[in-house]
Automatic annotation (TrEMBL):
Domain NADH:quinone oxidoreductase/Mrp antiporter transmembrane: 141-442
A single cellular component GO annotation: chloroplast thylakoid membrane
Record-linked PANTHER family: NADH-UBIQUINONE OXIDOREDUCTASE CHAIN 5
Segments forming domain NADH-Ubiquinone oxidoreductase (complex I) chain 5 N-terminal: 75-125
The organism of origin for this protein: Ptisana novoguineensis
Localization per record: Plastid, Chloroplast thylakoid membrane
Keywords, sorted A to Z: Chloroplast, Membrane, NAD, NADP, Plastid, Plastoquinone, Quinone, Thylakoid, Translocase, Transmembrane, Transmembrane helix, Transport
Protein name: NAD(P)H-quinone oxidoreductase subunit 5, chloroplastic
Job of this protein: NDH shuttles electrons from NAD(P)H:plastoquinone, via FMN and iron-sulfur (Fe-S) centers, to quinones in the photosynthetic chain and possibly in a chloroplast respiratory chain. The immediate electron acceptor for the enzyme in this species is believed to be plastoquinone. Couples the redox reaction to proton translocation, and thus conserves the redox energy in a proton gradient.
Amino acid sequence: MELLYKNIWIVPVCPFVASMSVGLGLFFFPKATKSLRRICAIVSIFLLSIAMFISFSILSQQIRGNPIHQLLWSWVFFKNISLQIGFLIDPLTSTMLVSVTSVGILVMIYSDSYMSHDQGYVRFFVYLSLFTASMLGLVLSPNLVQIYIFWELVGMCSYLLIGFWFSRPSAANACQKAFITNRVGDFGLLLGILGIYWITGSFDIHDLSERFIELIDNNGVNLFLANICALLLFLGPAAKSAQFPLHVWLPDAMEGPTPISALIHAATMVAAGIFFVARMFNFFEALPFTMNIISWVGGITALLGATIALAQKDLKRGLAYSTMSQPGYMMLALGIGSYRAASSHLITHAYSKALLFLGSGSVIHSMEPIVGYSPEKSQNMSFMGGLRKYMPITGTTFLLGTLSLCGIPPFACFWSKDEILVDSWISSASLGWIAWCTAGLTGFYMFRMYLVTPEGDFRGNLYKNTDKFVSYKSIWGNLQTLYERDKVFLNDSYTFFSNQTGDFDKISGNVFFPSEKIRNKSLNSKKSFDVPLGSERSDNPNEILEDAFVPITREIKIETLLYPKESDNSMLFPLIFLAIPTLSIGFIGVPFFHEGVTSDLLSDLLAPLTGLFHKDNSENLVDFFVKSIPSVSIALGGVFISFFIYGPVSSRDLQKEIDPKTKGFWGCFFNFLSNWSYYRGYIDNLYNVIFIEGTRILSKSICFFDQWIIDGIVNGIGISSFFGGEGMRYGEGGRISSYLFGLIIGNILMLIILIIKNDILQSYEYFTMF
């Protein structure tokens, strides 16, 4: 096995070689490379498969108890500075290698079909391979300098992939927003690295942690300075993992292709920040103040992401805020010292979130031919519904990912999230309440997405050929009120109906709903209409019903109706494969009785990492489930509330909306909560006022000062010199008599001034004598 550890460099080099070879071919021979697009994809997948095989071999060796390996080569020697490059292999590294390579290869297989019709197919695989190689290099880095190099490569690749469709203005703006936001964090990270080197004199992670702990024990370092350096160091992972207040880039990152959204949110960019804090855990743990800041940042991020996710109508954006919330849990766990729970949740969340994002991509891929290729339509959950009927595999796997993320046993995220909740209550009651409430909100908004998307009845055909929408804000989301493009006459009648779709009458072509009593009245008869619950009754047949999901039927022909279709096998295979770890990987943290000792696989795996992490394994499985009752109860509470509002238990699906216009305390409360969710907690608006508008005002002020003060002084001197010269020019006649006259007058004036000055001085001396 020593040969395996010595050749660990193959893991990041394989995807890097794939990226460089295909990229150079695309640059120098674009037509030939594009004609071999499938071969380029196969090469990328094959080389990453080699890396995955080695990663699994490394993990198996670590499980068997092999010691930590560190391979180093000299890089720079300059006076007292010595820099080395190499690879660090420990349990944290091995688990991350398996997570990144396994999710990455499934994303590549999925992308082969998802991006098959895109002109940038080959370019996408170049970026994808480079992104994976950068993350693998970061995971294997043994020192801060090497981590920073790969850290910047990860940021560059995310910029390229988020802005992959750069011709779309929203995508171009999103990648710039992500790049600039991460530059703030990366600048803090760079300052923190330099500060830590100044304190400890080392870049090596293990050496600097040991030296720093010794300095703390011997009072050899200023705690204020140490905390400042640690907080600057924390800025980097806070931005990468979208932690408050540097989280604003993450929802807009959905402008990239869905496969890359899965990779960013599951195993690479967002996971990089959590991995970095876990890698530097020994260093941070020596500073209680910094650990407290980390825990509260994580708690606020988790709760903020969950509250904003309540009212999202965009499927991918809702999952993005879920991604913001779950790494918040991990940061909270790391801040309170629960290293084991954070590491476990990092792995379980990776597979669950990859499954959800790839499932959403399958849904979007099937919706695009029906509602159009604009993200505002193909990703809008208002246009979906009933997809499990047409896409059973996608719907079922999406349900599994939803159950896991909600923390429902026995799915993967239950085991890790429950442990975070228990440790949060032990650490602080405030953090415990935050984590507990976030778990309930997670159950609600995740099942809201599931019930509105795969469940119910399909609504996509009712939105075809519409060109104008009016948003109706609600605590549960933004529903759409549909205007007719043209007046539609169906058998001289208007039909009003609820948001539930129904069967089509093959004779008249009208829509009939088994769950609604529909009354059609002729235009010639008395105008009386049955309207959905929550709408005002009106005698005007042309009036738009605000609370109806689709208030007026359209003339829809049977032969023109389109329905979603299940994705092809290359997209379904990753979904089915990801469903396996979503179901089973959480069991690595389940306590079991072995040789008279209660233990679990995860604790045994992390035990060699350091002796500072201690996990009490005295409890058995029954005690574990008893302690998990509160966390499961709040998650199920959120699920049942969502089911009551959106599921078949409710009388009319989305009609039981809580109207934010309702008067009274609850009306004001729900109105505030609705606006809070819809406007992203007003944080984007606040940043717009402070940073964008503030920068513009400051720029205009500086421009005014420069133009009228600085340039005014210079220009004033120039203008006065000009006019003075012009005046003197007219005074020059070329006659000597005029010059002599001016000289005499000047001398007389000078003489008068001197006489007056002497008189004044003599008078002053006279008065001073007395």
